[in-house]
Amino acid sequence: MADSAQAQKLVYLVTGGCGFLGEHVVRMLLQREPRLGELRVFDRHLGPWLEELKTGPVRVTAIQGDVTEAHEVAAAVAGAHVVIHTAGLVDVFGRASPETIHEVNVQGTRNVIEACVQTGTRFLVYTSSMEVVGPNTKGHPFYRGNEDTLYEAVHRHPYPCSKALAERLVLEANGREVHGGLPLVTCALRPTGIYGEGHQIMRDFYRQGLRLGGWLFRAIPASVEHGRVYVGNVAWMHVLAARELERRAALMGGQVYFCYDGSPYKSYEDFNMEFLGPCGLQLVGARPLLPYWLLVFLAALNALLQWLLRPLVLYAPLLNPYTLAVANTTFTVSTNKAQRHFGYEPLFSWEDSRTRTILWVQAAGSSAQ
Ligand SMILES: NC(=O)C1=CN([C@@H]2O[C@H](COP(=O)(O)OP(=O)(O)OC[C@H]3O[C@@H](n4cnc5c(N)ncnc54)[C@H](O)[C@@H]3O)[C@@H](O)[C@H]2O)C=CC1
Ligand SMILES: C[C@H](CCCC(C)(C)O)[C@H]1CC[C@H]2[C@@H]3[C@H](O)CC4=CC(=O)CC[C@]4(C)[C@H]3CC[C@]12C
Fold it and tell me: Which of 174, 186, 217, 269 is deepest in the core (most CB within 10 A)?
């Protein structure tokens, strides 16, 4: 009996395990995965919080490494049963070059897949993104869509291009023979905009509001709806998908799943106010204060300034033509595919998610940079 319990212990690897989502996945695995024997946390930048996890019953191994280095990835993957690949360069502001985004998101993912094949790891869960689908460059709304909704996905920006390519690699790798002769089983999870503890853009909006005397100014019409999802629920979906991949390989292998929960559909700004309001900020204007053409002009100006200043300084404001287009296009998801395929139900209610996020914003906003 003791032997069979021992035999069931699994080794998990989480790439990007020190990022916003990755940290939640790591903590969720430790709390909710009973078969976990060892947890490897792979990241370019390791967080000091990992140390406190090393005192628990599960062996936690911190690995500083780069997904673009195939040998580092292979060494980390060797002997793991399951890989959750969340590492990625999330940049829609022009901080990194298109080449770097491609290298990390596409080549990094290729390295993870090849490492699984070479070392005999059979189960791979990939963190994709809603951006693989849209919003497209034409600004078509995606309203209450699901995984089968027809939508013209047209990408030009390096980030969605890279996520789409990487997702395709992961799905095409499903069924490949890994070392030892068994097939690789893969699936991809597509979060919409994630919020929750650790969400840096939310913290930045809060600090900006404080600097402006407690005011934020509406830029986008309230009628433009965004689907958002709480980070704890995204992490939970990763843990469940990873757990069920073996048992439900035929059903789940090669599949994509939007990440969803009970968060309300609202405009990006109104949704943020669910947290920033209770922290004392106010959103001014029932309608956008600036005409849309002026925002388009300012976004284009920012893009021009970024290009002109690049040799001297990095100028990467939140507003650019891409972020404006995303913020100004409805993208909401309504699906139950993850529930049907692997029994996913959100672990955190909307009220819980909201309270946790408010507490974090209050603490993060007032702490030093
Ligand atoms: N934040 C969001 O709203 C959404 C994020 N996603 C996806 O979720 C994943 C995680 O995103 P976040 O947690 O928001 O980003 P994040 O930037 O907080 O986390 C990414 C982590 O990956 C690590 N990383 C980056 N480059 C690396 C490299 N070359 N080698 C090893 N580690 C590297 C970073 O150090 C960081 O810890 C990404 O794949 C992203 O595309 C998908 C949908 C929405
Ligand atoms: C930064 C944008 C909001 C500012 C708009 C302004 C300047 C007019 O006030 C954000 C609006 C929508 C966000 C994106 C969306 O949530 C989907 C995403 C998915 C990802 O995989 C990565 C992040 C992001 C692209 C997210 C980025 C910030 C926004 C563009």
Answer: 186
Work out the average pLDDT over 245-261.
97
For helices 158-173 and 108-119, what crossing angle results, to 10°? 20
Q: Does residue 8 register a pLDDT over 90?
A: no
196 Cβ below 6 A of ligand 2: no
Q: Which two tokens stand for residue 74?
A: 């292979």
- At residue 268, what are phi and psi to the nearest 5 degrees? -55, -45
Ligand nearest to the CA of 44: 1
- ipTM of this model? 0.98
Q: Residue for token digits 């290298």?
A: 103
Give the whole-angstrom CA distance, residue 229 versus residue 203.
17
**pTM assigned to the model:** 0.96
Q: What is the pLDDT of residue 153?
A: 87
CB atoms within 10 A of CB 203: 17
Q: How much of the chain is in helix, strand and coil states, percent to nearest 5?
A: 45, 15, 40
Domain boundaries along the sequence of the chain:
10-199+228-262+332-348
Quick one: fold of 10-199+228-262+332-348?
A: Rossmann fold (3.40.50)
Ligand nearest to the CA of 269: 2
